[in-house]
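Section handout 9: paired folding examples.
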Amino acid sequence: MNKLFDILLKLAAIILLVIAAMTTQPYNYFVLLRWFMFLSSSYFAYRSKDLVGIYRIRFGVIFLSALAVLFNPFFPFRFTKEVWHIIDLSVAALFILFGSLNHDWRNFKGGLSKTRKIVFDLIQSCVLGTLALIIAIAFWQGMLEINPYHEFLLITKATTVKGFITHSEEEEDDVESETQGSRRSFIIYYDYTFTTKKGEIIKDHASDRSPKSGYLQEANATPLPIDVEYISSDPQIHRIKDMTGQANTLFDFLWRRIGLGIILLLVFCGIGFEIIKNGIKVYLTERKKITAKLEIE
């Protein structure tokens, strides 16, 4: 039972890490992720206390304890989002490749009958295929950056009003460039507000990147005017006008969001469906062999 629990716990950790790295989630999700990774890493570190490597070094305990410290919710590390995304994907990959997940799975299957082994192989294929589908959808959503339907409404039915950036903060970051090497960059977090034509006051926040320090800092002294587009029937659907990466025409929207987006989604989803399809095919083939063997006997 403990082996099956360990497998499911590692799978849950991989899925949560991939979702955190590939999608936009509320702050509470990352708090939950910290607690989950802290507790699960501590649990696996304890479970690995008897595993001794070369020179009698307990590498498993050291690695998993380091993960528990990295994700600890009490004194959290303040990395940038980009750095955390790299960490999340790297840890997920380590759990898959070197986290003994496959080893645990093989040991668990070793004590099963042939019939149950092919069932668990089917489950494994379905889980891996579903994980591939989740990654594909998460990648697609990350590429879209905004709900496509909301963006379509903002292109076709938006009302434009004046708004103001009221506060900004910057965070230094390094950007790797093939031509220029590592160079300084700044992530800008800012608050803005606007008033609809019906008098409703909407407050929100966004982020941007700048190669120079001080971008939008004057907003902390005097509000900076901006143009905001919103939907009259639902002002919560809004955006700052002419920001980088926006689709501003129907052609741009249909190509970048629908055409190219669906092509990429189908390509990546195809991997997940292929894994699941092969898993089902192998299961049916092996099941026929077992049934035929029983009939002969």
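Moving on to protein 2 of 2.
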Amino acid sequence: MDVGIIGLGLIGGSLAKSIKTNTEHRVYGYDLQDSVVKRAQLVEAIDGVLDDEKLAQCKIVLIALYPDQIEACLKEYADKFPVGSIVVDCGGIKRDICRLGQSLAANRGWTFCGGHPMAGIEKSGFAAARQSLFAKATMILVTHPDVKDLAWLTMLKRFFLSLGFGRIKIATPEEHDRIIAYTSQLAHVLSSAYVKSPSALVHTGFSAGSFKDMTRVATLVPDMWSQLFLQNREPLLRELNGLIERLTQYRDAIAQENREGLEMLLAEGRDVKAQVDALEKAAMAQLEAEKKL
């Protein structure tokens, strides 16, 4: 099968390398930077350039660009995606992009599906791409809840599992954006704000794993993440407001030297973390059991 990838940065480049490493599919890639495409060819991450001729042969097309670029790409290629192909965007926001993709695909004979590979590192660009990036990670497939034809969805699930993903999660655009505001976007806002303390510049020798964990994703790409935050502003604002309210409770307990209240807050956080860990453990056990069937 021929697979096309538009955008060969960290995600697109890693997808290309994963496909080449784990499958027999042919991969054709395109990037705004010609030097990136040439480098991808040199390291055999792609089999060739994704031009109009190669695009016409592709059964699956993956779009790995910034949110505003994804929208522009869908509009530009709407009449070029081959009939019968499946187009998957791999961005971090879904409502508007899924609405656009599904409307463009409706009368053109190709299928659109939102996608979000839940993996990443604090580096960007093709130079950081690795074939192991998605090992055991979750791939979220985002589609309309009333979808009737499940054959293409089954095909996509098998395709992404073959690349090393450990779990496929199906979600609606609204569900995706609401939850990702908490699990990803809020964490990036918090990390960026946390590292701005003046103490960060004099912390050497006084930090361990906690500091590294809290600051890791502050090394983000401002252009991309600002787009993600603003396009998902309502769910993200709800999470931010909730976080500010909870932080205020901790601040007040400390300011008032309320040890009993502070212990209660800390115990609540510990208990919620235990619940989260238990749910994740149960989900992984169920996943392993399903694989054995």
